[in-house]
Amino acid sequence: MSFSHRSIVSSGHRIHCVEVEEADPDARPVVFVHGFPESWYSWRHQLPVVAEAGFRPIAIDVRGYGHSDAPAEIEAYAMTALVGDVVAVIDDAIESSAAGAGSAIVVGHDWGAPIAWNTALLRPDLVSAVAGLSVPYNPRGDKKPLDTFRAFSGENLFYIDYFQEPGVVEAEVEVDLSSWIRGFYFTASAEADPSQPSMGFVPPGQQLRDRLQQPTEGQMAWLPEQDFQFYLSEFERTGLTGGFNRYRNITRDWYELAPWRFAPIVVPSLFIGGDKDGPTILGQGAIDRFDVNLPRLVRSEILTDCGHWVQQEKPDEVNEILLEFLTGVG
Questions:
Q1: CB-based contact 188:308 (threshold 8 Å)
Q2: Which residues are catalytic?
Q3: Average pLDDT of 218-224?
Q4: Which of 33, 61, 88, 315 lies at a 20 to 30 A Cα distance from 77?
C-alpha cells in the first residue's frame, strides 16, 4: 500500500498526517500517536493492516517532530496542547467523511500513550476506544511526578529529570546524533544487555550517553538500516528539542490536569506492553489498578522477549491483538 501526506491546522500549528491511500475515507478513523524519539513512521507495520481491516488509519507527527510545526515555547508542548492536536485531527477526519463518522479510536505508544489516554479522558465524546502501548494509564495523583522520580532515584537523576534543563541533553546529542539515537533505540530494546547499568538513571557528572549500549552486527534486525536512516534524517533536520520539551511539561501537566485527579477512562481500552520494557515494568503498579482506572478494559497483554519499541519489535503480535480490539469496538 502507498501513503499519502497532508497537514491540518491545530491552534495555529501545522500537524503532519499520513494515511493509507487505499483506505476507505468514510471508515472509522484510527489515529496513531508516536513516542520519543520517533515519528509517524513507527506505525509503518500497522497502517496497511488496519486499512485492510476496513478502518481509516491516520498516523501523525506529534508537534515538534517530522513535518509538524515545532513551536519554540516549552509550554507549547503541554499535554492539553497535544491532546488538542489529536482532537483537531479527529475533527478533520469526521468532517471529511461523507458517512459522518462520529468518533475515532486513538492508539499511542510511549509518550503517545499518555497523549492517547488523556485524549480519551478529556474527550470521550470523540474517542470511542483507546489503546496504549508501553506506558500504562496512570491518572493524575496527589504527588508531583518529579518528586516521585527523585524519591526513588537517590543521588542519580532519573532520565526524565535529566531532560528538564533546556540545552543540557541537547548538547550531548549534538556531539554525535547518529550514535545517540541508535544507542537509545538499542538500549531500550529487548536485545540490550540487562547486566549493564540502566539508561534510566544518570549518575552525577555523567551523561545519558554514558549509559547507552551500541548494537553489534546482526542485532537490532527489527530496525533495518534503511528504517533507522529515515528516523535519523528526520532528526538531522528538526533536532530533538521538540521531543525533549514534552518531558519539560510534566509539572505543568500535573497542575492543568488537576480537575481529572484519579479519574478513570470510561471508553473501551487496550494495553500492550513488553516484558523487557522499562516503562511497562515501572508501571506495574498502574497495571495492577486497571480494574479501577480502566473499568472497560478489553485486554491487557505483556509480550514476551519484547522491549520498549513494542509495535516495531513485535509487529505481528501487536497487529493481531490490535485488530481483535478494533473489530470488537469499531
A1: yes
A2: 110, 308
A3: 96
A4: 315
